[in-house]
Every structure is written in structure tokens, then in C-alpha cells.
Amino acid sequence: MSMKRTNVYADPEDLAIIKEAAKRRGISEAEIIRQGIHLAAMANRVWDEPLFSRTFEGAGRTLSKGEVRDTVADAVRRETEAGTAA
After folding, report:
1. pTM beyond cutoff 0.90
2. N or C: which end of the chain has fewer CB within 10 A?
């Protein structure tokens, strides 16, 4: 992948932390900054489709903690039984 050079202003305290982390991790300061830029880009990306594109029928109310726990336990039980039957 090709890289493009850019200049940014950064807080000196942040740069000191990056310098220390780079030394401790044995990688370049530039690599830590590239990772940070990638995280910022992904956090601000606008996706083409919604995260939840399917809808599910439900009780029409927020389930209690016990109801959620029981539902998950039932699903795990069904998966386990299906796996042992095969």
C-alpha cells in the first residue's frame, strides 16, 4: 500500500507519550501515528448500509435481565443439542 505524506500539529505531551510507547514497543513513532490515523478514520467513516439491516420481532418492550439470560441460555442449549445430534 502506498503512503501519502502529511503534516499535522500535535500536542507536545502527546508526542512525548508516543515517543515513549514506540521505544517500549520497539516500533517507530510513525507507526503509532499511522495506527492512530487509521482508528480516527474508521471511527468517522460513514457506512453505505446500516449496522442492523434486519429487523426482529420482539415483545415490544425491553426485556428484563433474567429474560435475556434465559433466552441466550435456551439458544446455547439448542445449538449444543444440534451439534451433538449430528
Report:
1. no
2. N
- Pick from 37, 42, 33: nearest CA to 14: 33
**Other C-beta atoms lying within 10 Å of the C-beta of residue 32:** 16
Q: Under a CB-based contact definition with an 8 Å cutoff, are residues 37 and 45 in contact?
A: no
* Cell 503512503 found at: 3
3-class secondary-structure state, position 31? helix
**What pLDDT score does 53 carry?**
64
| CA gyration radius, the chain | 23
% the chain with pLDDT above 70: 93
Mark out the alpha helices in 5-60 (DSSP H runs): 12-25, 29-43
Question: For residues 12, 18, 24 and 25, what is the CA-based torsion angle, rounded to 10 degrees?
Answer: -170
* Helix, strand, or coil (residue 35): helix
Q: Containing H/E element for 72? A: helix 65-85
